[in-house]
Amino acid sequence: MKIEKYTDLQSKLDYCIGSYDYDKNPEGLIEFGMIAKEELKAFKLKNPRKVNKKVIADLEKYSKN
Prior knowledge:
Elements: H1 7-23, H2 27-46, H3 53-63
């Protein structure tokens, strides 16, 4: 998504992915992944065809572990 509202969240996720690659600590990735999941759900309510159901389903599956 290239929407200005989500630029900060996207940059934090990019940082967390890089950090996880370095130290294998998923804490930040999990935290911001949960925020991203909720934002995607809200975005999907307004734009149902712009977000793939599988993306949200996968985020929910991995957030339960």
